[in-house]
Records
---
Amino acid sequence: MAEAEIGVIGLGVMGANLALNIADNGYHVAVYNRTTSRTEAFAASAGALSERITACATLEDFVAAIRPPRPVIIMVKAGEAVDEQIAALTPLMQANDIIIDAGNANFRDTMRRFEALEGSGLTFIGMGVSGGEEGARHGPSIMVGGAETAWKRVEPVLTAISAKYRGEPCAAWLGENGAGHFVKTIHNGIEYADMQMIAEVYGVMRDHLMMDAPTIAAVFSAWSTGPLDSYLIDITAEVLKVHDAATGRPIVDIIVDAAGQKGTGRWSAIESQMMGVPATAIEAAVAARSLSAMRAERARAEKAFGLPAQQGRRNGQEVIADLESALLAGKIAAYAQGFAVMAAASREFGWNLPMQTIARIWRAGCIIRSRFLGEIATAFGTDPDVPNLTLAPAFSKMILDTDAGLRRIVSEAALNGLPVPALSSALAYFDTYRRARGTANLIQAQRDFFGAHGFARLDADGEHHGPWGGQG
Ligand code: NBP
């Protein structure tokens, strides 16, 4: 008998926890996984929740177990696996059933899938989910893209399983087709920038102030009660405190310094470039992960060049105070960039993305959750069309209060050869953005010289060419 109200395909880290979360919220859920042994292991470990879980060995049984119209969440590896699942599922489903891709899809794939399913009678939703394993189990942040009518049909279950910020669900419909996956991509891009800037600040404390991991942990713990209060600062303090059982050393000291990446940060950088909206802190963070992965080359380069001589250092407490400011100023620039990219995409794809809602549903459940996002939500509530977060009065004040610290840290790091690519690109972004008269006049002259591209004059309308003496 079909008694499940919803189905989940894919019982990896995210799917399994999402299914348990759904069952925990009183819904009967059918589950299916490509490898049946994983389905069996999942069913065996579900405990009391197993009475609301129907574990299925075949897709046919899975579809038959769900009451029509069926909402089915696909939570498998992004990319081809999703296309394969949709292809296998489509012939088994019927009109009005809803397929929800909840993985980290590239929003361009999501757009393509919307088109492919158009006219099939099936409804498609592209849904970004953030919060990792813990979030999936106890409340993630959920970013939905698709028809608003489709959202309305699944809103009760999605809001039930989502994180709550002071009782408010962190799940929302953000716009048509690829909107949800686009916003999730930018969320991850911002997450890359946040993590990179935290790592840079850690590097200054470790390699310049020569602090050990537990001492650095105490600094992050102290910051977590101030304006930097966030999940990422909390877990940074936590991981820095942990010691390896085998060696007794802080575990961060024995972890290889090569970061992995699955693509969402890179997609954020690519999309920002495609739209001509700079996201320099995100780009720097993606590039830093790529450079981190080049360990053998870096070791060779250190052998070849050595490290720069230290230029002396200021009082440690002063540096630490500046690091806190630097992190906050850098964070403001990174979020300003991420939100500007979303605003541009919203215009390009006609999504009408609700910026305040995005900030609100990121306040809990997701990896970048923070006090800061509450302030962003307030800023967009006051002025939804502010062109750049730094121009919202509260953030203008915040960045003016902190940019001197960022400037001192970037200078000190440069003098001492400490790489702070995300922080320095955030500073360069702010300095470029705040300067009315830039240097692109020279670029325009160069372009006109070699390519007759023309330029605008400050003192006359129209397009002009320079008197380059025919040397262009
Ligand atoms: P896991 O690696 O834990 O699980 C992968 C799942 O994909 C398994 O169920 C696997 O089935 C299934 N799968 C694969 Br791989 N290839 C398949 C195919 N060709 N057909 C059908 N199923 C296939 O991944 P996860 O961490 O749960 O991530 C799932 C999605 O959620 C991804 O898009 C990921 O980017 C996204 N996400 C992850 C996180 C996170 O923190 N982990 C957070 C937010 C979003 P099998 O058992 O048969 O191999």
---
Amino acid sequence: MLPVAELHLHLEGTIESDLLVTLARRNDIALPTYDPVELTARYDHFADLQSFLDIHYANLTVLRTEQDFYDLASGYLARAAAAGVRRAEMFCDPQTHLGHGVPLAAVFDGFSAAIADAESATGISADLIVCFLRDLGGDAAEELIRAALPFRDRFIGVGLDSTEIGYPPRLFETAYSIAASEGLHRVAHAGEEAGPDYVWEALDVLGVERIDHGNRALEDPVLVQRLVDEQIPLTTCPLSNVYLKVVDDLADHPLPRMLELGLRATVSSDDPAYFGGGVDDNFAALRNDLGMSETDLATLARNSFEAAFVDDTTRAGWISELEG
Ligand code: ADE
Ligand code: ZN
């Protein structure tokens, strides 16, 4: 099993059906069924990103208390550590929970406690990236970053997720400039469903350091050259792309091409409870179904450490473990 950094992981997307049922019962929230197998079976046929998001957001009404957020993150971090993840940079969507009347303190306190406990139990290193839900718009994003600043020590960066098409990065310029002035890292989903113009805007207007997904950047050779020249990481999610019909088949996945072009591509699981498993399952699919070589897989793992928001000594330790 390769040691890796998982850089594109939505904590809310790690909610396995067993935990979904436990939390629904704990908080007296109705689910369409209480059979975990039936719940998971609904994830087989997403038509696109939005059809996934609709089910995903409906599930998230079960998350209510600090303990719920603790249990969610603890479960992921234990599975990730067992799957070779040395470093997890984890997205969370506080606006979803605020919309359910859950205070920010419950979200941050639950996640922070889970990170601290997982770090001492397994040695995994983890941090949070707060995402703006693009379909709530730029003003709501600005409101969130201001409300989150009292918790500034709980997260290392900001990201942009949810419905992509129709919500271009430029709408979030103010929220990102506040984040930049606070010294926060900046990333954004772009080029998952929308075209290369969204990737350009994420770079030029939001000043992002990594692009989440970035598949459609390959349609623009000038953009590819920029991403190569600046070694801007792309956090690709191969199994997610298959489940959400971003690619027709894993065999069509652009990852091998990205490596050939010299792009700093990495691999993550996105929403492992919905998309066929964790980062280890993604690596297994690349090896077994896409036929990627061990050398390419090691390059992807190395890229993940190069792209992580950590100090150079920590980074060098993981790279020497990988290459040792
Ligand atoms: N939220 C959770 N997963 C996502 C994805 N793949 N794209 C956009 N928003 C998301
Ligand atoms: Zn994502």
